[in-house]
Amino acid sequence: MTGLSSTSGVTTEFDDAIAVVSLARPDRLNALNRDVLAQLLAALREVADRRDIRALVLTGEGSSFSSGLDLDSGLIDSGDPDPVAGSQAALQAGVDIIRTMRDMSQPVIAAVRGHAIGAGFAITAAADIRFIAADARFSAPFLRLGVTVGDLGLSWTLPRIIGQSRAAHLLYSAGTMTAEDAVNSGFAPHVSESPLDESLDFAKNLAGWPPYGVEHSKRLLDSARETTLRAHLDSEARAQVIGTLTEPAKAAMKAALARDSRKGA
Predict the structure, then answer these.
(1) Residues contacting 92, CB < 8 A, separation 6+
(2) What is the residue-wise DSSP string for 109-160?
(3) Which of 44, 141, 201, 214 has the highest count of CB atoms within 10 angstroms of its CB?
(4) Per-residue exposure over 42-62, b if at least 16 CB sit within 10 Å of its own CB, e if not
(5) CA 25 from chain center: how many Å?
(6) Which one, of 90, 95, 122, 106, lies nearest residue 46 by Cα?
(7) Signal peptide span per the entry (predicted)?
(8) Which of these, 47, 39, 51, lies nearest to 10 by C-alpha position?
(9) Burial of 111 (0-12, 13-18, 19+ CB in 10 A)
(10) Cβ partners under 8 Å of residue 227, min gap 6
(11) In whole angstroms, what is the distance from residue 43 CA to residue 174 CA?
């Protein structure tokens, strides 16, 4: 890895066309306070703005991905004269993190070990794909804490990944999803021996594809959540036609035709 940048709570490393952003408070299980949220948002925005970066791996240092919001850090001040407005302002960086992850052209790959709790769970759910260790645990303790299950988009993303019924059961029970549960529900493709290594390999593979196809595939997968099949077919057709006009696509098709002609000879 090269191009390391580090703050007290987040590190960013670059390896050719890959960025690795790590939550870096392992002594606090990467709990998210105001500073960490601001640093993570800044790191994601830096990656989003770099056209030479083609994929992002998001992970946590130490034994866990993130234990969620740091409730001891004063993130939410009950003594605020307008606690609702004050809390919303404090959490705006978290909201912007999720928006940035979904709006950036680069696919976001979450490498998860240990606990991903609350807001940490929500961040993993906002990734494009997750590679998880056998000890991964995704927890949603919101109702136990007297608050709603709507945290950083989790009540929107989770039902779309694992289904409405499974999501409702997990969230209403303030439960925990094990690694096995995550695989069985489609939250992750399988259990990984080394989630970070597999995430890096996956990211490098993505970075090797022509950029137009990867970027617009992310857009199509996202838009499919909110559109009709009829409208989506039109979007796919337009993106496909435009893609065939790009130079990398022309070169790839020419190479494929050449291989086919050699096989037929």
Answers:
(1) none
(2) EEEE-SEEETHHHHHHHTSSEEEE-TT-EEE--TGGGTS-S-STTHHHHHHH
(3) 44
(4) ebbeebbeeeebbbbbbbbbb
(5) 19
(6) 106
(7) none
(8) 39
(9) buried
(10) 235
(11) 31
Backbone angles phi, psi at 97, to 5 degrees: -60, -50
Measured between alpha carbons, how far apart are the two ends of the chain, in Å?
Answer: 45
**CB neighbours of residue 156 within 10 Å:** 15
Let me know: does 146 contact 78? Beta carbons within 8 Å.
no
pLDDT on residue 173: 98
Sign for the CA dihedral angle at 144, 150, 152, 154 comes to positive
pLDDT digits (tens, 9 = 90+) for 182-208: 999 999 999 999 999 999 999 999 999
Measured CA to CA, the distance from residue 119 to residue 133 in angstroms comes to 19
- Indicate the length of the chain as a whole number: 265
d(CA 94, CA 96): 5
pTM: 0.90
